[in-house]
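User: Hey, quick favor. My workstation is busy. Could you predict this chain's structure for me?
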Amino acid sequence: MRPTEFAATALLFLLLSGAVPAAAQAPARVLVFDLELVDTSREPPDPDHAGRLERVTALLRDGLKDGGYAVTGVRDSTIAAEVPASLYRCNGCERDLGRRAGADIVVTGFIHKISTLILNMQIIMRRTGDGVGDDGGDGDVIAVANADIRGDNERSWRRGVEWLLRHRLLAAPPSDR
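Assistant: No problem, here it is.
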């Protein structure tokens, strides 16, 4: 048998036996919802918050893509028009929306502004499941990432998202999630 025939036979054997490396599996389809701001500071609204939320959401999407996921932003999805103004209080509607958009996982998050100095960031990754029965993994939490950040500014928000990606959301390889 020639070396090329041997290599082809060995590859075919691996594929048929199920011993395919995890990297060869299709990446999980992730729908990333826009991060939200929950402001209980009683301070005047910052006109840059809307733009900053867009930028850190883009940073989150890019970080998950770099981590091996097939990422779609909610604004680019088939369910964009159905998304409520706030997911923070929608009681799990993100799972149904994600399932209808064809996602395996949904990512939501918010930044809670307590004051100009004290903020908390939380990002949650959940499986969408099949919506049938208890065995579909419906809503199983993959990761809950929290970080306290100091300073209501671009730099601290970006550093918060980057830290959560590196140390909480992408700490395990995608095949283990």
